Amino acid sequence: MKRLFNLIALLIIAAGFFILIDPFIRQGQREHNAKQAVETFKLAAQDVKNENITDISSYAEEADGESSVPENSESSVDGNSWSSVPAKEQVSEGNKRDHYIELYKKLCKYNKIIFKSNQSELRDAFSYMTSSIRFTDFGLPCDTVGYITIEKMNVELPMYIGSSSANMAIGATIMDHTSMPIGGQNTNCVIAAHRMGGFFGDIELLQIGDLIRITNLWETLTYRVAKITVIDPYDTDKIKIIPGKDMITLLTCHPYWSNRTRYIVYCERTFENAEQHDVGKSTADSSADTAENIPQVSEGSALPDGEEFAGSQSVIELERVIRISGAVFAVILMIFCIAGLFRKQ
Question: Among 120, 137, 205, 155, which Cα is nearest to 31's?
Answer without folding.
Answer: 155
